[in-house]
Design a protein that fits this description.
Elements: H1 24-29, E1 35-40, H2 43-49, H3 52-60, E2 63-67, E3 82-85, H4 90-102, E4 107-109, H5 112-116, H6 121-124, H7 126-131, E5 133-135, E6 138-141, E7 145-148, H8 155-162, E8 168-172, E9 184-187, E10 200-204, E11 211-218, E12 221-228, H9 235-240, E13 244-247, H10 264-267, H11 272-286, E14 290-297, E15 304-312, H12 322-348
Parallel strand pairs: 1-2, 1-3, 3-4, 6-15
Antiparallel strand pairs: 5-6, 7-10, 8-9, 8-10, 9-13, 11-12, 11-14, 14-15
Helix pairs in contact: 3-12
Length: 349
């Protein structure tokens, strides 16, 4: 089963050679308008995101990617139209924040303080919870959860006091994009809770047919793919299975469920109007334009959904058609800024 829309590509994409900042001037002479995107990404992110096919398509549309040199002052580099980043650390956040203040003409994707909000699973889902989204297309909430910052021996009492129902999913409190932050455990009984390692978040496990939906958001664009997830837990299994079971990253590209022969009630994508309302509200509340949501549908229902994770600047290289979505997004940002600048100039005149 495949419900993904297909994107047309040129048969032959230009394979660009690496371009340094000193090449910008020569490139600009060949283009009427060049959109310069400065990027500060990890080597892993560069490899997965800035693929040759993407760079070739972008260059054909007048978009130039230039690496930001972290050993030089950011203000001395460029000029940039857009700054794309996914690096951590207080020093880098301060550099970006200072740059945003001194270069308001540059679009920084995204504000570092807003990104930081998603690095803590205690605050990550609060916006979804506060939203309490419910309309004719469905209801979106978050699983009941509990934060344990230290002392594993107190987890059992805390769980009983909060009234959480087993099994429980345990996730690291810090969600910084590292491999460790994506590891999770499933605890089946109260005794096993003491084997967990704080700081962590405990979420009630919601049966969801073993499938989750990764909702990629790029500005106003939304793309949904299916991923295999943890299987449902029956009452019989819960009464017999004991202990903590640890899992690596669950929703990876290798676990794609788009072509699997699934029960239609499980495979059906969340209603588009519901996702559009959710994405629009989250963009506003989070102040972010590049993120994805991990969403599950409660098994046995058609319209009851839970957001279980939000990730900033996820693995877009795994998203079908990401090259076209991002080039359109970058061009729209520059066009929107140009319109706003013209409007301000008219008001001043």
């Amino acid at each position: 089963m495949r419900l993904e829309e297909e994107f047309s590509h040129c048969d032959e994409e230009e394979q660009p050679e690496p371009m340094s900042q000193c090449s910008i001037g020569a490139f600009q002479q060949q283009q009427q308008k060049v959109v310069v995107v400065g990027y500060a990404l990890t080597s892993k992110k560069i490899k997965s995101f800035l693929q040759p096919k993407f760079e070739g398509l972008a260059r054909n549309k007048g978009i130039l990617f230039v690496a930001i040199d972290q050993n030089r002052p950011l203000s001395d580099q460029g000029p940039f139209d857009i700054v794309l980043h996914k690096l951590t650390g207080k020093e880098w956040r301060q550099i970006l924040e200072d740059y945003r203040q001194t270069h308001p003409e540059v679009t920084v994707l995204d504000p570092p303080d807003a990104i930081q909000h998603l690095h803590n699973r205690q605050s990550m889902l609060q916006c979804v919870s506060d939203m309490n989204l419910s309309n004719s297309y469905g209801k979106v909430g978050v699983p009941r959860q509990l934060v344990i910052k230290k002392d594993a021996s107190s987890i059992t009492d805390a769980v009983n006091k909060a009234g959480l129902i087993l099994p429980l999913v345990a996730k690291p409190l810090v969600a910084d994009g590292s491999a460790k932050s994506h590891e999770l455990s499933l605890a089946y009984d109260q005794y096993s809770l003491q084997k967990l390692e704080p700081p962590l978040v405990l979420q009630e496990f919601v049966n969801h047919g073993g499938v989750l939906f990764k909702v990629y958001i790029v500005g106003e664009a939304i793309k949904v793919v299916r991923r295999f997830s943890l299987p449902d837990v029956t009452k019989r299994e819960l009464s017999k299975i004991k202990g903590v079971f640890r899992f690596p990253r669950v929703s990876c590209a290798a676990a794609s469920a788009d072509d699997a022969d699934l029960d239609p009630s499980v495979a059906e994508l969340p209603p588009r109007p519901l996702l559009e309302r959710l994405a629009k509200e989250l963009r506003r509340r989070l102040g972010l334009r590049l993120f994805n949501l991990d969403i599950i549908r409660e098994h046995g229902t058609r319209d009851h959904f839970y957001v279980i994770d939000i990730n900033y600047f996820p693995g877009y290289g795994k998203m079908p058609g990401y090259e076209h979505i991002f080039t359109d997004f970058f061009l729209s940002l520059v066009q929107s800024r140009s319109r706003n600048d013209r409007a301000r100039n008219l008001l001043k005149a």
